[in-house]
Amino acid sequence: MGSRSRGAEGPWGAAGQAEAGLGGAGLGWAVQPSAVPGAVPGAVAASCPPVRSRPAAAVAVPSSMAPRKKLKGLVAATITPMTPDGKINLPVIRQYVDYLVNEQNVKNIFVNGTTGEGLSLSIQERKQLAEEWMCQGKDKLDHVIIHVGALNLPECQELARHAAAIGADGIAVIAPFFFKPTNKDELIAFMQKVASEAPEVPFYYYHIPPLTGVKIRVEELLDGIKAQIPTFQGVKFSDTDLLDLAQCIHKNETGEFEFLYGVDEQLLGALALGADGAVGSTYNYLGRQTNLMLQAFAKPDLALAQQYQFLTGEFLNFVIKLGFGVAQTKAVMTSVSGIPMGPPRLPLVAASSEFIIKAKAKLDSIVWPNGD
Question: How many domains does the chain have?
Answer without folding.
Answer: 1
